Amino acid sequence: MHEAGLAQAALDAAAARARERGAARVYRMTLRVGDLSGVVPEALRFALEALSPGTKADGAAFDIRVVPVECHCPACDRPFRPADIVYACPDCGRLSADVRQGHELELVEVEVS
């Protein structure tokens, strides 16, 4: 389960941010997880909750936001969300390899005090 390693890295980064700001604890961590990232959000949450006791994030809220896949159609010059694993524009049917979002795995916010 690579989510445990990712969770530990996120907790370490949050603790570092807390130290930089002279904060005693982390109250909330917000992460963005893309559908194509290979990360299972429920497994990541489980790992964060399992690894956080005894850290600055003990008792913190973990907000995990799933980012859907979004492609860009070169023919229609517009974004679209593919309906399945074939990334075809719903308007013109043209296939697109231009994936604009969905690979994210980011710690985007850390609330400390």
Summarize the helices and strands and which ones pair or pack:
Elements: H1 3-20, E1 26-34, H2 41-51, E2 61-67, E3 70-73, E4 78-80, E5 99-101, E6 105-112
Parallel strand pairs: 1-2
Antiparallel strand pairs: 1-6, 3-4, 3-5
How would the global form be characterised?
elongated
- The helix tally amounts to 2
Average pLDDT value? Answer: 96
The major β-sheet equals:
3 strands, mixed
Count of the separate structural domains = 1
User: In total, how many beta strands?
Assistant: 6
H/E topology pattern: HEHEEEEE
Summing up helix and strand content along with how strands pair, one would put the structural category as: alpha+beta
Give an overview in words.
By secondary structure, the chain is an alpha+beta fold. It has one domain: hypothetical protein PF0899 fold, CATH 3.30.2320. Helices cover 26% and strands 30% of the residues. The strands form 2 sheets. A 3-stranded mixed sheet has the order 2-1-6, with helices on one face. 22% of the residues are buried.
List the defining traits of the structure above.
113 residues, alpha+beta, hypothetical protein PF0899 fold, three-stranded mixed β-sheet, three-stranded antiparallel β-sheet, 2 helices, 6 strands
Briefly summarize what is shown.
This protein is of the alpha+beta class and 113 residues long.
